[in-house]
Amino acid sequence: MADPIIQVKNVSKIFGGLTAVNQVNLDVPEKYIYSIIGPNGAGKTTLFNCITGFYIPEKGEILFYGDPIQGLSTNLVAWLGLSRTYQNIRLFSNLTAVENILIGLHPNLKSSWFDAIVHTRSFIKEESGSVKEALRLLDYVGLKGYGDYLAKNLPYGLQRRLEIGRALANQPKVLLLDEPTAGMNMNETAEATHFIKRLRDELGITIILIEHDMKVVMGISDRISVLDYGTKIAEGNAAEIQANPRVIEAYLGPGGAALSEKYIKQRQSYAQSH
Amino acid sequence: MNRNLFSSSVKKGLTFGIVMIILVLIDFEVMASILLSKLLGVNVIRGALPQVRFMIIFLVLYGMFVGWVASSNHEKSAKKLFQALVAGLTVAMVVGLFDLVLNQLIITGTDVRAYLAALGPASIKLFLLEKGALGSLLHLGLFTGASLLGSVLKILLKSDPVSHFLKSISTVYRGLRAKAQANTPDWIKKYGKYLLFLLIGLSAFFLPRMWGSYNNYVVGLVGLYVILGIGLNIIVGLSGQLMLGFAAFFAMGAYSVALLNAPLPLGIMLGFWPSLAIGVLMAVLAAVLLGLPVMGMRGDYLAIVTLGFGEIIRILLKSDLLTAFTGGPRGIQDIKGPTLFGQPFSSDIDYTYIILVFMILAIFIFKRLERSRTGRAWMAVREDTKVAEATGVNIKNSKLLALCLGAAFAGLAGGIFAARNQFTGPNDHQLMVSMNILSILIVGGINSVPGIILGAFTLKGLPEILREIENYRLLVFGGLLVFMMISRPEGLWPATRPKIEKDEGNKQKAASPPGKGGQNG
Amino acid sequence: MENENRPPRRYKRSNLSKIVRWVLGIIVLSYILWRLYTVFIVQNEYNPDIWFRLLLSGLVIGGVYSLIAIGYTLVYGILRMINFAHGEVMMIGTFAGYFVFEATNAIKLTSSSGEVTSLSNAQPVLAVLLAFIVGMTVASTAGFLLEKIAYRPLRKAPRLIPLISAIGASIFLQNLAQLLFSPLVRDYKNPALIARGQGWPVTIAGAQVVIPYTGVLTFSMSIILMFALYTMVKKSKLGKSMRAVAADKPTAALMGIDVNAVISQTFIISGLLAGAAGVMWGLHNGLVYYYVGFLPGIKAFTSAVLGGIGNIPGAMLGGMLLGLIESIGPTALGISYQLKDVLAFVILIIILVFRPSGILGEILSEEKV
Questions:
Q1: Where is the domain boundary, A148, A167, A186?
Q2: In chain B, which residues have their Cβ closer than 8 Å to the Cβ of C24?
Q3: Are residues A163 and A179 in the same domain?
Q4: In whole numbers, what is the pLDDT of chain B averaged over residues?
Q5: For chain A, which chains pass the contact test of at least 3 CB pairs under 8 Å?
Q6: Does residue C27 belong to any structural domain of this protein?
Q7: Is the pLDDT confidence value at C367 over 50?
Q8: How far apart are the C-alpha atoms of C158 and B154, rounded to whole Å?
Q9: Domain total in chain C
């Protein structure tokens, strides 16, 4: 088993009196689809923000291929190969879809302002190459033909795809997706799930997922961690998590485990007698 | 329903009535009548009052405007007329009351010009159409009748030419261009570009020699402001940093050229071109000095800090403390102009050439930057700074670069400005200059080169040409800004995003023409 | 999919701007300390009476700035826009007060003993009160109209648009005043009781200093108005509505607050304060002209930012601080009085560099990721 690509070691993030993330430990092996779930306010997005550099954790370390990345500015984190999407879509609204993806390519390009003005040969080559690559990515995420639409004018589902497209442009090693299927109906969710799996299978990207839709989580995750009030309360594969009483209680409240067991027994007996 | 129409028309009438009173209090009606008079061929000696009939014409036009506005688009003709009638009557009554007061002033011989500068007896008499108290009755008839006339006009025309006009410029251009592209034969498409450049080049060369030094002055001024507008656009439009003290960089360039190229106070005669280069460098240096500490500031704070920076520079330049270095409040005179290959190159024609060349260079650089990795990084910073950073952009470097490049343009323009005027002083670098450039950007259309040119012409060129409204220039300017923001915030010539997918598709079509078993239909 | 263009590993957040900031701060601090040393220890030519006079003048002007600054901060808190035309609202107040005093001066009363005096001098309290009331009313009406005409249509527009509209409104109002009343600089005709320059004589360190009547009036009115406003914002229903709208406009609307009315009332209140400040300016400084609101407007906005924009006590503090710096600063540092504005702006930049949200901190929501 290879070394985990991302290691979160004892990370805590404290805002004044509130401990949003409390000594969380998790290891994400390479090329895994790793889901982080938990009720609202559990600290999932805060953890993402720590990993990607938006927040500096008060305690703990975050390692990428063994090197500490906590506290790095977000653009350096991007340079290193981590990309993310956002819970409430944050595209560059007044730019076209293609331009959004082109900006995603930024860390991979190296032309300077001088090259741009003078149109050096390397600039021309790089620019045309990046346009082709952006269009290719546009097609890959299924937005062919929408390239010249302003990002703010795209329908919701396509905006989500564009955000992924922009994240992919970075050629990331790790892709952090924050609630990618929020607001989607069943069909769209199925499509999105399939697509996320493709990303890992075709491109070899390690995916870390925050999700609320259990079908998605249980469907494609290789491993799941559950956060509740900032603490990790369980980790395992789909079956283990579903059966874990602490997890059930986190979602359903105290007494939930017992209630859930009762309900499961009821269903089983119903299924048996029919 | 009728009551609603009635009250809204009364409201409109009240507003227009009060506006009319204010116009009289600032002598605007006199100025407008003079303009009308000149337009219709009757010249008015400076300082004299126009003939009564032109005042009548002005009042009629105003009344028609009231009627036009009062007739809302969605009503039947009869209702439109009703609205206009009510509005016109209301205006007439409001103005009528005012007329009574004016008449009293005339009768009692009171001179209120100590308080209200425009109410001289001659102006009042003119407004009352030389008929004294009867003038109010005449006003009544004029306003009501003209208002109805305006309504009739609107009914007949069935559409709103005013908003059409405002929409027209860029849409008309695009429409024409589309038609042209469809209808031109291939050889023009290929060589047309070069032909156009040749045409532009020739006119740029010959026109300045032909149209007199005043036009050269105006064109030069507009050109300089285009350069300034582009510089500010890089900072505000592309990278989204609100800057209110842009004139400071302008001052760097102007004073560098002035100090290095005039007999007093320093007596260094370095020559125009080297001092211009130094001016640009000084502006960039100032940008770095300003930029580094303020990199982290939020938009509105940045605005006030840059405003403060601009004021600091101006006050320092004006202060007695630094007069030995900067020429103090009186500025620097006798700045020498450029030379080309040893020959003096500083006639007004030569300056126009210089400005046009640099203007084209500025546009060229801007367009190249816009469509590049650097430009896109700026735009990402503008749209969503935190996400731009998370996507890999180094925010601080990006913002600083934008500041420096923008400042460079300002320094360049400043240097040329100072040399052309052969003088510069602290008054050339006030806050108003920064506001002007920002206004050009917004009124013309932010991020749009044709918009900036149009804006520069409207806000700088036109006032020079329309000398008549000299006194009212700033009033109109201020009102225009408010009006434009409410009615057309995207500017006179809005920017458009490039159609990259379409262009790429066209390129591929051109590369593999149909007939070779074409891939995409 | 290896990418060769990745930069070498750098593990610290970039320190360059931090270094520059501290260098800048140290330079400015050293300069200030050096100048203070020179002025106080070495030269020591200024007697306490001069300092006292400067202190008084600083307090008075600080009070005026505070009132105007509160107006800026209220509008910013509720609309997130810089009301550039606020200085002109003050100017309108100044002019209104001027006309009141002209009127009261022109009305002549004959007393029982046959003496003829103007209403102004016979009933100075009435005249001053009238001036303030009229000034404040006219200014607040102007503020109300300003919002209705130039800002309300732009409520949903991106930030730059209302700013330009405000700039346009400012230029428009300035020039309207210039065209209406001519560029002539006029004098306030104070009632004789509180003529400019008169006051209570006080002996400080052997020298005579006059505590001006107008100064005392101005300062006390400023304090009263500030206190009234602060109480209003903290306690009254309108104040709560204002704070709600400032914190979250859509939710406030959902809670049943009439957002448009609250915004109009905010402008009316800032207009009232600015109008009062305008009349005070006229009484104390005496000058009325179309451009009179420009510089105080900018300075007041600077004060609001200095104290933390959106923060009402911040605006008060910032205004007072700026007034004192302007007044005492140049003499304390031994630099020319011309450079007082430079000093003020430099202090502003320094404060914002080290404390980007102003002295008392801004009251705005954190940006959420």
A1: A167
A2: 293
A3: no
A4: 84
A5: B, C
A6: no
A7: no
A8: 34
A9: 1
Residue-range definition of the domain harbouring residue C182: 65-308
A188 and A156 share a domain? no
Interface residue C156 vs chain A (CB under 8 A): no
The pairing of strands A223-228 and A33-37 is parallel
From CA C231, how far away is CA C240, in angstroms rounded? Answer: 11
Q: Residue C345 falls within a domain, yes or no?
A: no
Which 8-state DSSP code applies to residue C194? G
* Domains of chain B by residue range: 2-158, 212-498
Tokens of B85: 């009638």
SS3 B422: coil
* Separation between Cα atoms, residue A19 and residue A58, nearest integer Å: 10
Which token pair is B355?
């400005």
Residue A31's domain is classified under what CATH number? Answer: 3.40.50.300
Of A164, A210, A223, A152, give the one whose Cα is nearest residue A191: A164
With an 8 Å Cβ cutoff, are C6 and A79 in contact? yes
Q: What is the pLDDT of residues A175-197, one digit of tens each?
A: 999 999 988 889 989 999 999 99
Amino acid at C314: G
Q: Looking at domain B212-498, does it have CATH number 1.10.10? A: no
C14 in contact with chain A, both atoms CB, cutoff 8 A:
yes
Q: Pick the residue with more confidence: B391 or C32? A: B391
User: Do A176 and A72 share a domain, yes or no?
Assistant: yes
Contact: C9, A67; criterion CB under 8 Å: yes
Coil, helix or strand at residue C210: strand
Select from C1, C5, C11 the Cβ nearest to the Cβ of A110: C5
Distance from C-alpha of C274 to C-alpha of C87, rounded to nearest angstrom: 8
Taking phi over 0 as left and psi of -120 to 50 as alpha, with beta for the rest, B115 belongs to: alpha
Residue A4: asked if its preceding bond is cis (omega within 30°), the reply is no
Residue C156 has pLDDT above 60, yes or no: yes
Higher per-residue pLDDT: C154 or B305: C154
- The ipTM value here is 0.89
Decide if C247 is inside a domain.
yes
Task: Check CB contact under 8 Å for A54 and B386.
Answer: yes
Contacts of A110 in chain C (CB under 8 A): 5
Provide the residue type at A73 as one letter: S
Residues of C in contact with A89 (CB under 8 A): none
How close A246 comes to chain B (CA, Å)?
Answer: 35
Report chain B residues whose CB lies below 8 A from the CB of C335.
321
Count Cβ neighbours within 10 Å for each residue of B127-141 and write b for 16 or more, e otherwise.
Answer: bbbeeeeebbebbbe
Confidence at residue B491, expressed as pLDDT on a 0 to 100 scale: 84
**Do the Cβ atoms of B321 and C302 come within 8 Å?**
no
Report the Cα A226 to chain-centroid distance in Å.
15
Is C335 near chain B, with CB under 8 Å?
yes
- Residue C76: its H or E element: helix C48-79
Determine the Cα–Cα distance for residues B310 and B328; give it in Å rounded to an integer.
16
Residue-range definition of the domain harbouring residue A228: 4-81+172-243
Q: Closest partner residue to C369 among A54, A68, A171, by Cβ?
A: A54
- Sign of the CA dihedral B110, B115, B117, B118? negative
Strand B423-424 and strand B332-333: the pairing is antiparallel
Judge if the upstream peptide bond of residue C296 is cis by omega within 30 degrees of 0. no
Q: What is the pLDDT of residue B138?
A: 86
CA distance B286 to B404: 8
Which of C75, C83, C100, C180 to probe by mutation at the B interface, max B CB count within 10 Å?
C180
Q: Do A126 and A163 sit in the same domain of this protein?
A: yes
Cβ neighbourhood burial of B307 (10 Å; 0-12, 13-18, 19+):
buried
Indicate the number of domains in chain A.
2
Q: How many alpha carbons fall within 13 Å on the CB side of residue B191?
A: 4
CA A214, A219, A220, A223 dihedral sign is: positive
